[in-house]
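Consider the record:
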Amino acid sequence: METMDDEPPNSWFSRLFKHDKTALLEQKLSEEAYEDYRKLLMKARPEVKGSKLILRLSDGVVELDKGVLRIKAKNRKSAEKILRNLHHYEQPPSIWPAYGLSYSLKRRKRAIL
């Protein structure tokens, strides 16, 4: 009789519960490049937390902080695609979805007085 300990590590059971790691691309930026990215990302209405801009997309997250651009996605291919497509924020917003880009939606809580 086999037990779970006897199963090889690549069994269907271990693959079923395997968690994929997210990919992180990080790019160091000059002051000029930082300002260019900041202007570009502001068109998408990102979350602003101090000096950090956070833009949530359907396939990942773009973070811009002083001197560094970070892209977090489900895999490296998605992260590279987001990086390649960021320049499309220069285009009209109506075509952004074609490149996987979107507005960052902010919801404000209404105060009941």
